[in-house]
């Protein structure tokens, strides 16, 4: 059965992009996308998928032009008669549902800039004069996306959290299929004195909370593996601001190869996630697959993966005070028994 997988771009590699590449590998599928960064795709371990990736055109770096052109390019994509099924593996590729059937939309957000984080984007990233224009943009695209969504043949989503958003926004149901994690590829190793965080460097990940917490814990180390969107002034400035805010005991790593990332998971004390209303959170499962406890917010997708008190801690409030207390509590439990989380974490990760 010939399959096409459609992520909207493969130049900034995060969880959604890893999922699209994993689906392409597992299904032996061709990939249709826009921007492609072969070096980063190879660094994530997907050299075998590279020959099957085709670009349908470039996207600009700057939002909202990037998202708008993605919708337009996939709306024009016509693979009729060439494939037995089409998997829309990125929310901004939803335009492909109009012409390409039978299709399946694997929903990640959906389209968080238009719904879940719309108010946050409006308040925190836009100048006052831009906000009325943003209101018009979101209103128009909500209308367009809902029209495109009516052409979806089958819905699937990555978490119960997103399942609820789909019901609220689109008035339909979507079965949950959690992102597949190759848990056997991760291993446990004795901790080497640092905590780990893996995330995109964007506002709702709340990296500032991590920086402030470790400023208050100068005797502890934090390594942040962060992907960011080069080429846009907004994200370059955010990255620079984070690095200026970082205390000496926090270090940033960008775009580490897959093997290096797995080593970082294996050698860390534990994993820290601070993302607000995370869709699912693949990195938390990868950390548990390495036998490491996870400290995360008690909301979003983390409630579906982390077992509070057994595979880590879910915090009722995500701020520096709660995070420092949680780090201390986890270390106090590990001190007499360094393996106290390992079995439970790896058992839980195996569910995914």
List keywords for this structure.
6-stranded parallel β-sheet, globular, alpha/beta, single chain, 12 strands, 352 residues, 3-stranded parallel β-sheet, 13 helices
Spans of at least 5 consecutive residues with low confidence: none
Order of helices and strands: EHEHEHEEHHEHEHEHEHEHEHEHH
Output mean pLDDT. 94
The number of helical segments is 13
Strand runs, count: 12
- The class by helix and strand makeup works out as alpha/beta
Walk me through what this model shows.
- A six-stranded parallel β-sheet has the order 3-2-1-4-5-6. Strands 7-8-9 form a three-stranded parallel β-sheet.
- The chain has helices spanning 15-27, 38-43, 65-76, 118-125, 131-149, 160-170, 207-215, 233-245, 258-267, 282-289, 302-305, 320-334, 342-349, and strands at residues 3-6, 30-33, 53-55, 85-88, 103-107, 154-157, 195-200, 222-227, 250-253, 271-272, 294-297, 312-315.
- The protein is an alpha/beta fold.
- The longest helix has 19 residues, at 131-149.
Write the layout of secondary structure elements.
Blueprint (H helix, E strand, L loop, with lengths): L2 E4 L8 H13 L2 E4 L4 H6 L9 E3 L9 H12 L8 E4 L14 E5 L10 H8 L5 H19 L4 E4 L2 H11 L24 E6 L6 H9 L6 E6 L5 H13 L4 E4 L4 H10 L3 E2 L9 H8 L4 E4 L4 H4 L6 E4 L4 H15 L7 H8 L3
Parallel strand pairs: 1-2, 1-4, 2-3, 4-5, 5-6, 7-8, 8-9, 10-11, 11-12
Helix pairs in contact: 7-12, 10-13
């Amino acid at each position: 059965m010939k399959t096409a997988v459609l992520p909207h771009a493969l130049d900034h590699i995060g969880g959604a992009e890893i999922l699209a590449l994993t689906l392409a590998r597992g299904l032996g599928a061709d990939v249709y996308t826009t921007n492609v960064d072969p070096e980063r795709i190879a660094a994530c371990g997907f050299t075998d998928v590279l020959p099957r990736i085709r670009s349908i055109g470039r996207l600009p770096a700057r939002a909202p032009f990037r998202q708008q052109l993605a919708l337009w390019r996939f709306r024009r994509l016509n693979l009729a008669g060439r494939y037995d099924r089409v998997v829309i593996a990125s929310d901004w590729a939803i335009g492909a549902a109009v012409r390409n059937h039978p299709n399946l939309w694997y929903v990640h957000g959906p389209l968080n800039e238009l719904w879940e984080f719309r108010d946050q984007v409006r308040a925190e990233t836009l100048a006052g004069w831009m906000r009325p224009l943003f209101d018009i943009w979101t209103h128009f695209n909500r209308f367009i996306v809902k029209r495109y969504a009516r052409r979806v043949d089958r819905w699937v989503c990555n978490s119960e959290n997103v399942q609820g958003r789909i019901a609220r926004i689109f008035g339909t149901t979507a079965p949950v299929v959690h992102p597949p994690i190759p848990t056997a590829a991760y291993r446990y190793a004795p901790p080497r004195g640092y905590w780990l965080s893996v995330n995109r460097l964007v506002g709702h990940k709340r990296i500032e909370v991590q920086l402030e917490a470790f400023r208050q814990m100068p005797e502890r180390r934090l390594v942040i593996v962060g992907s960011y969107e080069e080429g846009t002034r907004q994200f370059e400035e955010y990255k620079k601001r984070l690095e200026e805010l970082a205390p000496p005991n926090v270090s940033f790593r960008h775009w580490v190869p897959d093997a290096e990332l797995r080593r970082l998971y294996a050698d860390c004390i534990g994993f820290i996630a601070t993302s607000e209303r995370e869709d699912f959170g693949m990195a938390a499962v990868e950390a548990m697959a390495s036998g490491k406890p996870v400290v995360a917010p008690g909301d979003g997708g983390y409630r579906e993966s982390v077992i509070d008190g057994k595979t880590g801690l879910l915090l009722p409030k995500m701020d520096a005070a709660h995070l420092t207390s949680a780090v201390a509590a986890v270390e106090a439990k590990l001190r007499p028994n360094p393996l106290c989380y390992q079995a439970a974490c790896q058992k839980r990760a195996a569910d995914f």
